[in-house]
């Protein structure tokens, strides 16, 4: 039994939401890499423990987890819509 999509959910609207979520994830990734670079630099200068990078990872996951989940769900909806339209 296939799940039905809402009436207002068209392929174009889902593609637009997917592109927006994709670029948001790219921006978050750039920000995360920059924060890790700063953390590595600070760790070496101030002789901090290696756990600082683990903290940076978990903080980023907590902050950006909602956007990551939105990206994954948009990708699933887009794949489902493309499969339905190809048949």
Topology at a glance:
Blueprint: H1 11-46, H2 51-86
Overall mean pLDDT stands at: 87
Helix fraction? over 70%
Question: Structural class, from helix and strand content?
Answer: mainly alpha
Stretches with pLDDT under 50, minimum 5 residues: none
Outline type: rod-shaped
Biggest sheet features? none
Number of helices: 2
Tell me the strand percentage band.
under 5%
Tally the beta strands.
0
Series of H and E elements? HH
Ends apart, CA distance between termini: 16 Å
Radius of gyration: 19 Å
Q: Would you write up a description of this structure?
A:
This protein is mainly alpha-helical and 87 residues long. Helices cover 83% and strands 0% of the residues. Helix 1 (11-46) runs antiparallel to helix 2. The longest helix is centred in the first third of the chain and has 36 residues, at 11-46. The radius of gyration is 19 Å and the shape is rod-shaped. The mean pLDDT is 87.
